[in-house]
Design brief:
Helix content: 25-40%
Distance between the termini: 11 Å
Number of strands: 15
Radius of gyration: 22 Å
Keywords: Kinase, Transferase
CATH superfamily of the largest domain: Glycerate kinase, domain 2
Order of helices and strands: EHEHEEEHHEHEEEHHHEHEEHEEHEHH
CATH architecture of the largest domain: Alpha-Beta Complex
CATH class of the largest domain: Alpha Beta
Structural class: alpha/beta
Shape: elongated
Protein name: Glycerate kinase
GO molecular function, one term: glycerate kinase activity
Strand order of the largest sheet: 3-4-5-6-9-10
GO biological process, one term: organic acid phosphorylation
InterPro entries: Glyc_kinase_flavodox-like_fold (IPR018193), Glycerate_kinase (IPR004381), Glycerate_kinase_RE-like (IPR018197), Glycerate_kinase_sf (IPR036129)
Largest sheet: 6 strands, mixed
């Protein structure tokens, strides 16, 4: 029997790698001849970098870049020299995690530092760059990022525009003549798990800017800026940003990744699956065991378990889910396609106990599952 173990983390409780090791050990105690393949996954959120490095075996690179407010900071990314592949998280250079909540001010923030990380990876020899664009503090439509790579944003008087969200409406044209010469040689894959358009009531400014420090007036200003900037993008690149799903992700970095990097926007879990060569490794698999902290309605929206189920369904493989808690009824679980579900909270009603001792409860869950296979 072959079992693939492919979980996400239990947030603030258990990493995906800990899950894999625990489940493997527990199952082998009951089924010593079982073949176990550990393929931990992530959806592009917190902890993704650890899972990516499980497959890349890369080196952590530290580089000095600009913060969202043009202060010099240290940022890190992963680089695998043999594969010439880099994994970058936008939040490292341009994220809210770098700021105190009272300092959030997305209209004056820039993605310049993210561009500087990309530039360092290109100069290091990267031919493939995976960019996660979650957790941004910005709303500059990637203008800062593109500036670092040689794009020039000019106003009506041919003067360079400072790359911040408040200045989007000032951009009259985009000069591409000085873009980095190696940019065209790099393949970009962008982890993007939202589908918001660039502007409008469901767009970047109206949906996300408030939580990044924007006032009501700021949101109106930023949305107008995104509309004006979209017209310039369409004139220069022949792409209507409003027709691109996910264009509004990360303050417009969705469309910026597409037009300035020629990147492909993908669900985070699909990017990690590709990196793991997940589908190829499912040959002759009898069961996939997946899991996450809580099985709930969000699971239907592109999270790790849904990514696992998509692959399993295509190959007619049964899927079991071991979770911290379950907020779905039997009909919803069946609709998802899960054959077996168990949760830590089936063994304790104490949430604190569940969080603190999830590893021990997971071992019990795995052993019970294995006994059902005898």
């Amino acid at each position: 029997m072959k079992i693939v173990v492919a979980p996400d983390k239990f947030k603030k409780s258990l990493t995906g790698l800990q899950f894999c090791d625990s489940v493997e050990a527990s199952i082998l105690k009951v089924l010593p001849n079982c073949e176990i393949l550990k393929l931990p996954l992530a959806d592009g959120g917190d902890g993704t970098i650890e899972i990516v490095n499980y497959y890349l075996k890369g080196t952590v690179i530290t580089v000095t870049v600009n913060s969202p407010f043009f202060k010099k900071i240290k940022a890190t990314y992963l680089y695998a020299e043999v594969e010439q592949t880099a994994f970058l998280e936008m939040a490292e250079a341009s994220g809210v995690k770098l700021l105190r909540p009272k300092d959030f001010d997305c209209k004056n923030a820039t993605t310049l530092g993210t561009g500087e990380m990309i530039l360092d990876a290109i100069n290091r020899g990267a031919k493939k760059i995976i960019l996660g664009i979650g957790g941004s503090a910005t709303n500059d439509c990637g203008m800062g990022m593109a500036t670092a790579l040689g794009y020039r944003f000019l106003d009506a008087d041919n003067r360079i525009v400072k790359p911040i969200g408040a200045n989007l409406s000032k951009v009259s044209t985009i000069d591409t003549s000085q873009m980095h010469p190696k940019l065209k040689e790099v393949k970009f894959n962008i982890a993007c798990d939202v589908s918001n358009p660039l502007y409008g009531k469901n767009g970047s400014a109206y949906v996300y800017a408030k939580q990044k420090g924007a006032t009501t007036d700021d949101i109106v200003l930023l949305d107008k800026g995104l509309q004006d900037f979209a017209k310039v993008i369409e004139a220069i690149f022949g792409i209507n940003p409003q027709q691109v799903e996910g264009a509004g992700a990360a303050g417009g970095m969705g469309i910026a990744s597409k037009v300035f990097l020629k990147g492909t926007l993908q669900r985070g879990v699909n990017l990690v699956k590709d990196l793991a060569q997940f589908d190829k490794k499912l040959i002759d698999t009898d069961w996939i065991i997946t899991g996450e902290g809580n099985l709930d309605a969000q699971t239907f929206s592109g999270k790790t378990i849904q990514g696992v189920l998509a692959s399993a369904k295509a190959k007619k493989i049964k899927v079991a889910a071991f979770c911290g808690g379950v907020d779905l009824n039997k009909e919803e679980i069946k609709e998802l396609g899960l054959v077996y579900v168990d949760a830590v909270l089936n063994y304790t009603n104490n949430t604190e106990d569940a969080m603190k001792n999830s590893l021990g409860y997971l071992k019990i869950i795995a052993k019970n599952f294995a006994k059902n296979l005898i």
